[in-house]
Amino acid sequence: MISITAADLSGISPALHLAVAGIAIMLLDALWPMRSKLLSVWITLAALGCSLTTSLHRLTAGVDVTLFNGAVRMDGYAHAFSAIICLASTLAVLSAPKYLRLRGVHLAEYYALLLFSVCGMVLFAAAEELIMLFLALETLSIPVYCLVGFTRTNVYSTEASMKYFVIGAFATGFLVYGIALLYGAAGSGYLVDLRAGAARAPGLFYAGMTLLLVGFLFKIGAVPFNMWTPDAYEGAPTPVTTFMAEAVKAAPFGGMIKVLFVGFGFDAAVGLWQPALVVIAVLTMTVGNLTALVQTDVKRMMGYSSIAHSGYILVGILAASKLQSADALAAVLYYLFVYVLMNAGAFGILILFSHKDKDTNAVEDLTGLARERPWAAALMAVYMLSLTGLPPLAGFFGKFYIFSYAVKAGYVPLVIIAILNSVVSAYYYLKVIVAMYFRGPEDTGRAAVFHYEGYSVFLLAMLWFTAWGILYYGIHSEPQLALARLAASSLFATAP
User: Fold this and answer.
1) 290 Cβ partners below 8 Å, 6+ apart?
2) Residue 300: domain span
3) Range scoring the smallest mean pLDDT among 35-44, 318-327, 341-350, 393-402
4) What is the pLDDT of residues 61-100, one digit of tens each?
5) Across residues 379-401, what is the average pLDDT?
6) Which residue, 241, 422, 475, 478, is most buried by CB atoms nearer than 10 A?
7) What is the DSSP letter of 75?
8) How far, in Å, CA of 15 to CA of 8, rounded?
9) N- to C-terminal Cα distance for the chain?
C-alpha cells in the first residue's frame, strides 16, 4: 500500500506552494471578487517567490531526497529546473497585469491556471517514474491550452488554442503509448529500471523509447514536430506567449534530459538516439531560422526563433551525453536561464505599447521607436542582439559554452552548422533594430503611436531587470555556471 507522509509533502513544497496559491486565488475571487483582482497578482508573485527561493536554497544546500516511494526525486537537478521555471513564470506574471486589464480579461482565472501549470512543470523535472512524468506533463499542459485561448472573443486566439490542444493531445498519445511499451518491456515504470527492458524485450523497449522521444520532441517544438509553435505564439495573448516562450519552453527539456540520461543512458540506447538527435538538431536549427527570415509578425518570428533555439539546446544535450560531463550539461542549464531573460524582455516591449484595441506585433509597428521612446528601443536592441549571440551579452556566452563543449565532444560539423545558423538569425533580429533606428513612419505610410495606454510598474521592473540580467550575467556567468554544475552533478550521479 502506498502512503503519503508529511516528509513527502514537505519535499515537494516548491510545487505545493503554487498549487495552494492557485486554489486560494480561485476561492478569493469567488468570495471577494471586487477586491481580488490586484491581490491575485501579489499572491501569484508571493507563491512563485517562495518556490524560487526554496529551490535555490535547497540547490545550494545540496538537498537530495526521494519522495512518494521513489516516484519523485528532489535533487539538485530538480531544484535548478524549478528555479529556472519559477523565474520565467515570475517574469511572465510581471508582464501581464497591464495587458489583461486593457483587454478586460478576468485576472483571477488567468493566474490560477498559470500557477497550476507551473506546479506541473516543477514536478516534471523531478519525476523518476513514467506515470509521474505523464501526470506532471498533463498538469503543465492543460492549463496552457486554456491560457492560449484566454481572450475568448478573439478568433485567432481561439483558433490557436484549438490547434495547440489537438496537436498536444496527439503528442501525448505518442508519449502514453511509449510509456506502455516501456513498462511492458521493463516490468517497471522507474527510469533507473528501464535498462532491463532492453535485454528482456528489445523490440518492445526500443519502440517505446522512440515513441517517448517523439512525444518530447513535440513538446520542445523540434522539427518535424514544430507545426504548432508559430500559430500558438501568434494567436495567444502576448503575456501567454511570454509564458510559453520561457517556462513552457524550458520545462519539457527538464523531463527529456532526465529520461535520456537516466532511462536511456546506457550504450546500446545512446547509440540509437544520439545519431537521431544530431539529424533533428540540424533540421530544427535550419528550418527554424530560414522560416523566421520571411516573417513580418514579431510574435510569429519569435515562434520560429524558439524552434531554432531548441536546436541549439539539442547540440548542448548531445555534447553532455557524449562527454558525460556535468560541465557540458551546466552549459545547457545556463543557456535556458539566459533564454528566459531574452524572451521575457522582447515580449515585454511588445506588451508595453499594446493598446486596448490593437497589439504591437508587426515589425512595422516598431518603426521609429528610437525617435519616440529611445530607452525602449535601446532595451529591445539589447534583447535582439543577445538573441543573435553578440558579445558581451549573455546570449553570446550561452552559445559559446554549448558550442565549446560540442567541439570537445567531436561534433565539429554540427557546431559549424549551428554557427552558420546563428549568422542567418542575425538578419531577422537586426531587422527589428533597423525598423526602430533607421526607418520612420514615412517609410511605412502609416503613423506609429508609441503612447502608454495604462501604466504598469510590474512591466517596467521586468524590462529593466531582464536587460540588466543580460548584461550582468553575460560578463559574470561563473556563479550561475557553478549552480548549474551542482545541478548537473546530481543527475550524472543517478545516470547509469
Assistant:
1) 424
2) 6-494
3) 35-44
4) 888 888 888 888 888 899 999 999 999 999 999 888 878 8
5) 91
6) 241
7) S
8) 12
9) 29
| Helices and strands (DSSP H and E) totals, the chain | 22, 2
The shares of helix, strand and coil residues in the chain, as percent rounded to the nearest 5, are 80, 5, 20
**Residue 326 Cα to chain centre, angstroms:** 21
Give a yes or no: residue 1 inside a domain: no
Q: Whose CA is closest to 348, among 471, 458, 235, 247?
A: 458
Residue 172 domain-assigned (yes or no): yes
**What is the number of structural domains in the chain?**
1
Cα separation, 84 vs 407, in Å, equals 26
Cell of 10: 514537505
Give me the chain's average pLDDT, please.
Answer: 86
SS (H, E, C) 281-304: HHHHHHHHHHHHCCCCEHHHHHHH
Cell matching residue 18:
503554487
Q: Is 224 within the bounds of a domain? A: yes
What is the C-alpha to C-alpha distance for residues 249 and 104, in angstroms, rounded to an integer? 27
Among positive and negative, which fits the CA dihedral 168, 132, 279, 221? positive
Question: Is 135 part of any domain?
Answer: yes
Residue 247 contacts by C-beta under 8 Å, 6 or more apart in sequence? 85, 88, 89, 92, 117, 118, 121, 340
User: Which residue, 278, 304, 242, is CA-closest to 110?
Assistant: 242
Residue at grid coordinates 508582464? 95
The whole model's pTM is what? 0.92
Residue 4 binned pLDDT confidence (cut-offs 50, 70, 90): confident
pLDDT grade for 277, boundaries at 50, 70 and 90:
very high
At residue 1, the pLDDT reads 46
**Which whole number is the average pLDDT over 192-197?**
86
